Amino acid sequence: MRRYAATFDAGTTAVKGALVDEDGRVVASASGGLDLIVDGDAREQDPDQWWRAFRDVARAMLHDAAQADQDFRIDRIRGIICSGQMQDVIALDDDLRPVRTAILYSDGRADEQALRLARVLGDGCARGDTCASGDVRTYDDDVRTDDGRDRNGSDGRYAGDGRDGSRDRGHADTDGDAATIHPSAEARPAGTVPSDIIGTQRFLATVGNRLEGCLPLPKLMWMRDNEPDTFARVRHVLISSKDYLIARLAGVTIGDVAACSTAGAMNIRTGRWDAGLCAAVGIDMTILPELHRPQDIVGSVTVAAAEEIGFAAGTPVYAGIGDAGATTLASGVGRPGQYNINLGTSGWIATVSNEPFVDKPGAANLAFGVVDGFVNAVPFLNAGDVHRWATGLFAGGDYDRAHDLIESSEPGANGVLCLPYLVGERFPVMNPAVRGAFVGLSPATSAADMLRAALEGVAFSIRQGMESFDVPPTSISLIGGGARETAWCRILAAMLHHPVEVFANADILPAVALASLVFDRPDLVAAVADTTTYEPDPAAAHAYDALYPRFAALYPAIAQLR
């Protein structure tokens, strides 16, 4: 008897749904658009619009599935699982209804609060106190809900056993020490380093990500400062759009450890809310969601939700995973040595490691949860935008013509090098002010050389980034619009001295990855992935090796010309 997983992604522009069977086949799919509320630096969305879009998408998907598959019945849906945008503030009242619109990850209103948080943490470090705002509340004050539930879960890392949704009600300790801010042995004397710098360093060490105003914890501080009446009504805060859908589906307030790594309040190494960090700014930890692994069953569809949408009441609902974690899972990255390179407008290199990357510029770290370890994503600003810019400048915006030009130039672009930093850079160097350059021009330089040099420049930069990782690659996959340029794929294979894989069916793999968690089939993505492998060309690899020292010298030289 065929079983199905109902998968959804609640993104910024749309809610997408796909019904996936046990073989990884997409039986039906649907999507519904979303509106973005923009006001200056503010970026918000209506959580109830997420729910309405989810409802309509689910209804359409179930209808189409019944038409497409005569074996389909709703009681054969083994589970519902979602991915979604992360780093949001979704504030709910006692009835799990929004007290205001959701503040999104891209919202920039809380920079002042982030600086204040850094100073609070830094002052506590300098004094050796718990925090600058007073005593840290006890475990029972901060962690227990009124019914005795542990918001950090039962096993010291995650709630539940991963499959049946059970929860141990026993007492567990929280992570008060990491952000209760005691100075390390190597800390400088008080006053030597500004308190905000000390606080930022301590935050990074605890949370695994840089302290910025876009994080939910500073945004909660902003709400308390600027909307006190609204803040007084808050009883629950969710971090991912998918978790609001789960709240409406199953009546529970949960979060997965990957998405909640972006909250600014979770100790990334233990996967638990940090009592000292929340207490330092006076945020009651009981409003934060219960933490789970993505594959945990966290509840089931309520009768009311079943009547509204069409799922069978009692259908298991899974914790799911934040969108960056889902993308990592879909790209075949699940253990150290596996790398995924995204060539979107900007890009990232993602891998999984045993430790957060707190020493790499701009790195974002997530507790994975699917397996032990951490998703490490290092973003670079210049990727597909360089391709688009060079295509517009040298090929009149015609990508087919650009492809032919790139192929007509030799590897190494006849000695032309491009530093591709059109809009500054975050990795492998962090310098928002630096700008790009071409060097090695001669009377023989052609438009084809310039175009090829631009793509090679991005590839050189990616090579620099890859060399900063501790584990050599065992596999490299490419995603994003840039992966459609086959010449760029060949350049990267030669540049990195490693085969690179491109997914022809990349659009369905995130849904299949979610379904793999429902079916407990870690091999499902690999089983259905339609890949093209680009092998490194030895002659091109030799040419790039010869040019690489020159490229590495470019940034230090250009940076001095400001």
UniProtKB/TrEMBL annotation:
Carbohydrate kinase FGGY N-terminal domain ranges (all copies): 4-118, 201-329
Domain of life: Bacteria
Region (Disordered): 136-193
Alphabetized UniProt keyword annotations: Carbohydrate metabolism, Kinase, Transferase, Xylose metabolism
GO process annotations (BP): D-xylose metabolic process
Biased composition (Basic and acidic residues): 137-174
Residue ranges of every copy of the Carbohydrate kinase FGGY C-terminal domain listed in the record: 340-506
Molecular function, one GO term: phosphotransferase activity, alcohol group as acceptor
Family, as annotated: Belongs to the FGGY kinase family.
Name of protein: Gluconate kinase
Species name: Bifidobacterium ramosum
